[in-house]
Write a structure and sequence with these properties.
Blueprint lengths: L2 E5 L4 H17 L4 E5 L4 H10 L4 H9 L2 E6 L5 H11 L3 E3 L12 E5 L10 E4 L15 E5 L11 H14 L3 E5 L6 H7 L5 E4 L8 H8 L2 E5 L3 H9 L3 E5 L7 H12 L3 E3 H6 L16 H11 L4
Helix pairs in contact: 1-11, 2-4
């Protein structure tokens, strides 16, 4: 069976991107299998690149089933991807803007907010790839995802609480809210005062809880700092709104959210309030918003598997 090799640095966000692409490929090619490998040391990678010397950690999996495609996300995976590419002759796909020259990789899947220059080996994506899937939507269901202070956005608890209070007064539905590891305790205390909301703090959510909730939710509100969750909610087929935060150093991430809003894929809270309706609209395009699936199709059309 052909194998996809994922070089994983162990970080959940990076692994989620790689698994998202693998899952999309497997959906179209069920015979594909998965092998995860840890990054090699810098010395091992350089030995493989310069002399095609196979490091000991790779001997067993290479002997069993060589890969048909190499995937990795995170700077710590880049040298290993190139070493494996040299050892196996198979294509290497990096899921971000790499720290090494882009031309060294067969394909770079780079979010548009990183402003990659046009190139034959670059495919621009809307946000990072993910594992989300849309499910059967439960009428009257909604999710609220709260982040926390970050280097890209400011954090104003009072302004956030005011938006949430207004949202709850204008859109009566069953709301389920969760937080992130960045949510301050003071913010969590304020969230507990909101009536009629099922609040499940991040540390109380079991594995797989959020994907399952998003798959069945009709709509989702996300604080602007949680950019990856905006794209995950879109992939899950939710109508998506953003709870606005003070201007910070959002830069490229804020620009990506603005493009989504300009394209009608998401609604900032202020724009939603100005609208005549009080229910988030779901553009038809969000039903097919699945960047992992689009990238998988691109790979298969070129006969890489």
């Amino acid at each position: 069976m052909p194998q996809i090799w994922i070089v994983s640095d162990g970080k959940p966000g990076h692994r989620n991107q790689s698994l998202g692409l693998y899952a999309a490929l497997k959906q179209q090619r069920p015979e594909l299998e998965l092998q995860e490998v840890a990054p090699l040391s810098t010395t091992q990678s350089l030995l493989a690149l310069l002399f095609r010397q196979r490091p000991q950690p790779l001997l067993q999996p290479l002997t069993q089933t060589p890969p048909a495609l190499l995937i990795g996300a995170g700077h710590a995976t880049h040298l290993t991807l190139l070493a494996l590419k040299r050892l196996t002759g198979e294509p290497a796909v990096v899921l971000m803007k790499p720290s090494l020259p882009l031309r060294w990789f067969d394909l770079c899947l780079i979010p548009e907010h990183d402003n990659p220059a046009p190139s034959a080996n670059i495919l621009t994506t809307r946000g990072a790839l993910n594992l989300m899937r849309s499910g059967t939507k439960q009428p009257g269901s909604g999710m609220i995802l709260i982040g926390g202070p970050s280097k890209h956005f400011g954090w104003d608890e009072a302004a956030l609480l005011a938006q949430l209070q207004q949202l709850l007064s204008l859109d009566a539905r069953h709301w389920c809210m969760t937080t992130s590891r960045r949510t301050p305790e003071s913010t969590l205390s304020l969230l507990r005062t909101l009536p009629g909301v099922e609040l499940v703090p991040a540390e109380e959510t079991p594995a797989g809880w959020l994907p399952e909730k998003l798959a069945s939710a009709e709509c989702c509100w996300v604080t602007e700092d949680s950019v990856s969750m905006v794209y995950e909610a879109l992939t899950a087929g939710c109508a998506v709104g953003t709870l606005e935060l003070p201007a910070g150093r959002g830069g490229r991430l804020a620009g990506g959210l603005k493009r989504l809003a300009d394209d009608g894929l998401i609604q900032p809270f202020s724009r939603w309030c100005e609208g005549s309706g009080r229910t988030l609209s779901t553009p038809a395009s969000t039903h097919t918003f699945n960047e992992a699936q689009r990238c998988a199709g691109w790979l298969l059309e070129r006969g890489w598997l």
